[in-house]
Amino acid sequence: MTKCEPTCVVLGGGGFLGVNLCRRLASSGVRVRAFGRRCLFPRDLPGVEWRQGDFCDAAALASAIASCETVFHLVHSYMPQSADLNMADDVRQNVIASLALLEISRKLKVKRIVFVSSGGIVYGPTLLMPTSETAATNPISAYGISKLTIEKYLQLYEHHYGVTFRVLRVANLFGPFQLPGKNQGVIAALISCALHNKEFEMWGDGSPIRDYIYVDDVVDALLLAAADKSEERIFNIGSGQGRDLHQVIAEIEAHLGSKLAVRRTKERLIDVPVSVLAIDRACNILGWKPLTPFNVGVKQTIEWWRSREI
To answer: DSSP letter at 37?
Structure first.
């Protein structure tokens, strides 16, 4: 009997969001392939075909995409702070490599690319709160510029070659399988510090407001975007509600029953004061809505950390 090939590939399938997406796809009976430099949780991906490779390696990328109709593009090799320090390399590893991905997808006749962009960064400072997809995009970080550039190339490839796409501008994501590091994932960092009795380093005074969204809800949106037949291409994915860091810390402390040690440091220039996403388009067009209340998401994330003893 001929082995059935996967019908979708998750680029960045070994990371936080990728693992959650692959697990959902596999559990629903979809044949899925995961591609990335390394898989952080290999035992948690039963039924998933793993391909190790570098996103900048066009041959490895083409091999991973072969036979797949849907490509979930979750890769970005730099975080917001590190991208500002390595702007040229950020373009090479993310924008140029994404262009190669688009050309490979065109040649292999991929039907749909779903790209995870950043709802918290591509808009930049704005007075429109919550911020809709029609707002101006003026990112103040190299990370935001490269994400936005990839969005534009997706539009160009659909215009020229008919490679269809959907962009999800995702807010501040959290949940199981997210590990602290790379200066991203504040909830994971807070929980890790609390469980290991370590001091948490807070940039600035904790007043910037962010929109936090639980990972299961983002996976729901990814699956709906892959099947979407509307004329829309870009969707905000968030909770539609804002919280400052003090509120986040208070929620975690309430679940843990203990106080966090916090040390303030200098604020970052890449951080906008407020970022809350308007999610009406995703709700109305995709039929999506966030189902996990913030307190429930925090509780489930803490339970996952405790079960892993990381």
So the answer is: S
